[in-house]
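[Q] Does anyone have a clean structure-token version of this?
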Amino acid sequence: MFKQVLKYDLRHLYKFLLPLYLIALLVAIVARACCLFENSFLDIVLGSVLGGIGLGCAIAALTNNIVRCWTYFRNNLYGDQGYLTNTLPLTKSVIYTAKFLTAIITILSSFLLLVVAIIIIYGPLENFSQIWSLLDDFSIMLETSSAGVCFILVSSILLEVFCVIEIGFFGIILGQRAQNTQVLRAVIYGAIAFFALQAVFVALAFLVALFNPAVMSIFNGNKEGSLGALKTFFFLGNMFYLLVIIGLGFANAKILNRGIDLE
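[A] Here you go.
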């Protein structure tokens, strides 16, 4: 039953996302084709314009993906679809897990689309030599490989996005427990939770800095020391967001288990 719910959720979201993916890829391919006519109107003007549009479409697909996860979560649990969802022989924890796993899968595919669109528009890979050089510089600072730098940056971005999605779910769950202005309350609760977590992270980082002079350099503005502390800071951030994701997941599921009031 869990697999069926997951397939249904994925099918629903991809029905919205796939057209956006297709548009972004088509525009990126046409932009790349225009660049084949070097120093022509197609290359200088049309290729540049379409390249920007293609990149914008890929970014829009990712941002719309996040918003769609929230709207689908609310509609499927509390809207008209909720009458069917809440009659399934599954616990609220399992239903929530399916929703969050759906968000992870679709976000990963949208992020991959963005990377592919960038490669198509600005490829071949030799054109990214400045980026490779920058990664090499960062790898020296962080005392790791270029692949390690990519992993650190990508994992940091994705963990923050997944955390934001769960914060949105948290705001929706709390907002729906009110008698009115549920959407407004969801936004307010989500915003409060987001900024509160940022404050907790800064406080945690400062606490670590009291025992780690390298991390303290980030707070006191010592550039030489702050470069050496980046690896520790990224690691701390990733662990923090990972724990928040796990904690919010349990908290959201527990609140859902108390009952759902359909609209």
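[Q] Thanks! Anything notable?
[A] Residues 31 and 50 are 5 Å apart (CA to CA).
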